[in-house]
Design brief:
mainly beta
Length: 185
């Protein structure tokens, strides 16, 4: 991650390039899009950042809920989750997020759709609490060594963002392995 930050000892901004915290989610889904998929799980992050200007220095954890409906043309639904600080020595974390899902299938494993996670920081001043992105995502699901994997690229613009250091743009490149449910034989 490459991120500018303010340093009072300097005449303005400095920048840092480092690894950020590792986020994770563990979700179990029910229904398999027949007609609706419901998923329940937990989401969190580990303080693995390599620079104090990038890491939250916290362990976070919270619930998540997925609701999806499949259509002939693709998918629609949402993923909602919340993170609280459960350990660490960074500032308190209390963040709610909603990720709308709208994905249109172009065929041959290629999809295009909305990208963005709307978030609300309960610890911030009201003017700095919301982040609302508009974005586009294009992805391809294919086989790699006989295992399904999804590659995707997303570009987002935050139409609403915190006044203090809120990012304007986000570019995300993701590689997502598709795994079988280990609890079903």
């Amino acid at each position: 991650m490459h991120q500018p930050y303010f340093d009072a000892a300097l005449p303005g901004f400095d920048q840092s390039t480092a690894f950020g915290d590792v986020g994770f989610d563990l979700l179990y889904s029910f229904g398999g899009l027949k007609p609706i998929t419901l998923g329940l799980g937990m989401v969190g992050s580990l303080p693995t950042g390599t620079d104090s200007t990038i890491t939250s220095e916290n362990w976070t954890l919270g619930p998540e809920l997925l609701l999806l409906k499949g259509y002939d043309w693709g998918l629609a639904g949402f993923l909602a989750f919340h993170n609280w600080k459960v350990a660490g020595h960074g500032d308190d974390t209390n963040m709610s997020s909603l990720q709308p899902i709208l994905s249109y299938s172009l065929g041959d494993g290629v999809t295009i759709g909305y990208s963005g996670t709307i978030s609300y920081n309960w610890n911030a001043d009201h003017d700095d609490a919301w982040t609302v992105p508009l974005g586009i995502n294009i992805g391809k699901t294919t086989q790699l060594n006989g295992k399904p994997i999804k590659y995707s690229l997303a570009v987002e613009y935050n139409v609403v963002r915190p006044d203090t250091f809120g990012p304007e743009w986000k570019i995300e490149l993701a590689f997502t392995p598709v795994t079988q449910n280990p609890f079903i034989k």
